[in-house]
């Protein structure tokens, strides 16, 4: 065997640290990007951030793209939240003996976010004392707080009406109530369907989540990364990044940049990071602009009319349109929120697979789901449509062929119960 030394030329794609960071930067939301930029300022002495007093603009023929209109933040503000600490304070105001305060404080700390009592397995509280504690909780919290299951929660809310028919149904016919078997309930209690309907109407006014406001976390804020507006029938969009600080080069260190010592080598490396950051920010911005421009053209009906008008569109189609890889589109739209005239959505929700309809046309899953919800809202509640009937109606009226199993899948994704569970009482 003879050993030889040869030279060969080949191309390789190496995942450098800069390339990896550029990919991560593309996936950041605007809020996360701001945090990252400020972290870079703390680590790199050559990076200096300048807060923007006025917003810049990015001119484009159609649609209009600008650098932002300052800080735009949408949020869903929760009602006055009921915190566990507030409940404990109410306990101390209502009860004076330490045994009661200790018991109720323990129960409150074991409530889930809906107000149900979830005790650990090693709990040594006796049943009688536990029942007493739950009864005492009703004095300081919403009715039904501390229940261990849904049936107990409803019974606690019906305590003031101990002889009511609604309480009898919940107490003795709860499985039948959950299955909406109205005739069996009437037969079991020897009452009419009209009586059952009246009692069920009362039960439906009860709150199955008595403490849904218990929350130990702060309100979540939704920060739109892209804002789409309609003006005189035309769509305009802007990247909501006008509040981001401007990345500048700290000129104080420039005299030392070319020094032939350790300081010069250190600053040279930091200058490369500064240039990389500028290039990555600009590349991220240009990529988002290209993607949103295609979305504005392909999904114009969606932006104006809402999800029911969403056209089928895949990431691959957008990638081919702008000459990028599909994975780049996926990363660029990850964790991004887009605000439109018809609502605020995750940007990835604008991509949906295709379903074939009559005449070779394609429809999106969102449109099919919208039609399903419309059919179910308009159905005869005494004879709700089964999944098979819904599939047949879609085919007959819309020319959309969808299997019964797909209808069931979409219905479950929209949290719509089955036809048996949607059936109302026929008097």
UniProtKB/TrEMBL annotation:
- What residue stretches are annotated with the RNA polymerase sigma factor 54 DNA-binding domain? 265-423
**Keywords, sorted A to Z:** DNA-binding, DNA-directed RNA polymerase, Nucleotidyltransferase, Sigma factor, Transcription, Transcription regulation, Transferase
Task: Look up keyword ATP-binding and say if it applies.
Answer: no
| A GO BP annotation | DNA-templated transcription initiation
Q: Which domain of life is it from?
A: Bacteria
Q: Which family does it belong to?
A: Belongs to the sigma-54 factor family.
Q: What is this protein called?
A: RNA polymerase factor sigma-54
